[in-house]
Design a protein that fits this description.
The complex is a heterodimer of chains A (about 150) and B (about 270). Chain A is α+β, with helices and mostly antiparallel strands. The chains are: A alpha+beta (about 150), B alpha+beta (about 270).
Amino acid sequence: MYEFELKVNGERYVVRAEPRKLLSDVLREDCRLTGTHVGCEHGVCGACTVLVDGKPARACLVYAPQMEGHEITTIEAVAKDGKLSPLQQALHEAHGLQCGFCTAGIVMTFEAYLKENPRPTEAEVREVLAGNLCRCTGYHNIVRAILDAAAKA
Amino acid sequence: MKPAPFRYHRPGSLAEALALLSQLGDAKLIAGGQSLAPMMNMRLVSPAALIDLNGIAGLDGISERNGFVEIGALARHHAVANSSVVKTHCPLLAQAAGAIGHYAIRARGTLGGSLAHADPAAQLPLVAATLNAEIVLAGKRGERRIAARDFFVSLMSTALAPDEIIVAARFPKSAPRERCAYTQFSRRTGDFALVGVACTLGSDGLTLGIGGVEDKPLVFADFGTTDAASVAHAVRERVSPAENPRVPAVFRKELVEILTRRAIQQCTSSN
């Protein structure tokens, strides 16, 4: 076992776990933050995407002790005081989710991307969205929601 | 999809990392982890120890000096693709780095990791071989430099000694009138490229790097012409992809010809 400290959404967590424990599992099991979903566990599906120091990362491709000293942001920190972020609101309004399993990863990916590129083209949105698999929607409404959120910002 | 147990080390300096690497028998270096972690999660590799290089400061720089663009091993693909230094002085590298995987993968994957992993379909080994970049390796006895074309030996194997660490790569700056293009084909956006083509057109003619076809990047030059159709056909005849039930050799040869032609056309048509 290995004891280390994580900073998640501004809060400190002291975690005792084997070094091999994935960040995605530590977030869900040790920090009890189950908004981060686990899909493929090899970096393909994008469901577990979180922010590490503001940049997107697959939580399943990071071993939790590697994150000591870094700031992790998860889906739980995106809505503020019960109010959805503009991107979350746009996904809600444009029917950009159905079962919701992939949604947390998509929100985290685009919370980062829209800061970097606040006025993306549809082609740019589609290129970035290619890193997050959604089996329900067919993607059109997700793309529309992201473009709506960008247009309103 | 959980890795086998390993001991975890995060050295604070390169010297400490080199010492750990030679002390620990079965250790793997981890930087971005975008290739190693999936392989560990699928238990294709199960090292007894991981040496995490992310705690070493100063290994992620991007700078221009003496005719080279020097990039630290820990520079992330997204930083390389968007660096104004790289876009200005080594545009081929910027284009290829931007074509790696997905946004979140590029945010974390590193130059050194990609070179060390030496996947024959990967973008950065292809560009390094095409431009014959110099790869800087640190070992206990100091640094040595090796030409990229000598560094890549075979499928996922390189000239890196077990006790060495890649610290940087130096890419030659493109000449003022040089043109370049990178083209690739993958079945879905972000998948591994079935074929990638890196092309430069300088005063000495065309240089073509072909990735994904054999066990390491191939580099061809001295065509005596810049005619896209005839060079593309010549390159097709010079590659021998292996048969694969999901990717027939003839399909890869076809891709080589088409992607080579497109890359040359981009070089000859751009101003």
